[in-house]
Design brief:
- By secondary structure, the protein is an alpha+beta fold.
- The chain has one domain.
- Helix content is 29%, strand content 28%.
- It has four helices and ten strands, in the order E-E-E-E-E-E-E-E-E-H-E-H-H-H.
- Helix 2 crosses helix 3.
- The longest helix is centred in the C-terminal third of the chain and has 19 residues.
- It is globular, with a radius of gyration of 14 Å.
- 35% of the residues are buried.
- Bound molecules: zinc ion (ZN) (2 copies).
- The site of one zinc ion has 8 residues, from loops.
- The site of one zinc ion (ZN) has 8 residues, from loops.
Length: 125
């Protein structure tokens, strides 16, 4: 399963797709070379809205292409994405999210990471 971490309120949200072009039964999102997607729709837009604080964020999947310049221009927040077993505990997922945020920092520099994925850099608790 893929999980996204809200970089504003640190809520952990399982990523599901209910259909882009046409509605379908909710399916677990999958990782693609271009970010997140689903078995039916293919690649999905790499954005997510937190259900707790309603902040629209850009999804960061380690290893996938990420348009850092565009995100910084829009001063969008970035939600790290991780793959974890279904039913993994909140703290397990948060540890993984912290690692995802760290690889973001490695890729784009700690200054960018501080501004964009801040909440998870401390270690996830
Ligand atoms: Zn879908
Ligand atoms: Zn949130």
């Amino acid at each position: 399963m893929l999980y996204a971490g809200c970089s504003v309120c640190q809520q952990v949200v399982p990523l599901r797709c209910c259909g882009l072009m046409f509605p379908h039964f909710p399916l677990d999102a999958i990782q693609t070379p271009f970010g997140v997607g689903c078995m039916v729709c293919g690649v999905a837009p790499p954005v997510f809205t937190c259900m707790t604080c309603f902040t629209l964020q850009r999804l960061y999947v380690p290893g996938a292409q990420f348009p850092i310049a565009a995100v910084q221009a829009q001063s969008q927040r970035v939600a790290p994405v991780v793959q974890a077993p279904a039913g993994a505990s909140d703290s397990t997922v948060k540890t993984l999210l912290a690692q995802s945020a760290k690889s973001f920092a490695t890729e784009f520099g700690s200054a960018a990471a501080k501004g964009l994925v801040n909440a998870f850099l401390a270690g996830g608790s």
